[in-house]
Design a protein that fits this description.
191 residues; alpha/beta; Rossmann fold; five-stranded parallel beta sheet; globular
Length: 191
């Protein structure tokens, strides 16, 4: 019976391990998502986004990070720089507070530079009405559908479903493609 228990543990470790997937192929590395937002009035949107992304995170498809994961007393600039250097998808929650924040603009500018190199995908989520088009390139992905602010959706659950579905689709595609990703740049392409 002891050997059976050991074999069961080995089997469970193999099933739960990174090497196993339903198709028998090696599992893909989860994408790192960094969420940039204004702490002033957009924390509720961050929390709601994290709740909606939790199933993908639990399935080890993504890793969601933001400044609330940091330990008090840490050097915020260094931590954010480190996280951004390892980010695959940069998600910014767009609002008038986000646009007014110098720190958020610093993060967005870094993400845009990485997107130009094909090393990061930048996605905007319009939380509240704001002049996001002035600072966020129009050819990058903006959610929810038609860039309608979340606050204007009735019910707002529909906006979150749209956002989650689009992010799921994006992450599935990005996870199988090698970097650099030529289609994620925020530069205009002339036809």
């Amino acid at each position: 019976m002891d050997d059976l228990a050991k074999e069961s543990v080995i089997l469970m470790e193999w099933i739960l391990g990174e090497e196993w997937s339903q198709t028998g192929e090696k599992s893909l590395k989860p994408l790192n998502i960094f969420v940039s937002y204004s702490q002033k009035n957009d924390t509720d949107y961050l929390e709601r986004l994290c709740v909606n992304l939790k199933p993908k995170e639990r399935a080890r498809k993504i890793i969601v990070q933001h400044d609330q994961h940091f330990i008090a007393g840490s050097n915020l600039d260094n931590l954010i720089k480190d996280k951004l250097e390892n980010t695959d998808v940069f998600v910014c929650i767009l609002s008038e507070d986000y646009l007014a924040s110098d720190y958020c603009q610093k993060e967005l500018n870094y993400a845009r530079e990485q997107a130009r190199k094909g090393m990061m995908c930048v996605v905007g989520i319009v939380a509240r009405p704001c002049a996001w088009r002035e600072v966020f390139p129009g050819n990058l992905l903006v959610l929810p559908k038609s860039a309608k602010p979340i606050i204007k959706w009735k019910p707002q659950d529909d906006a979150w479903l749209n956002i989650t579905s689009q992010l799921d689709f994006l992450c599935e595609k990005l996870s199988i493609l090698p970097k650099p990703w030529p289609f994620v740049s925020d530069e205009r392409v002339e036809f």
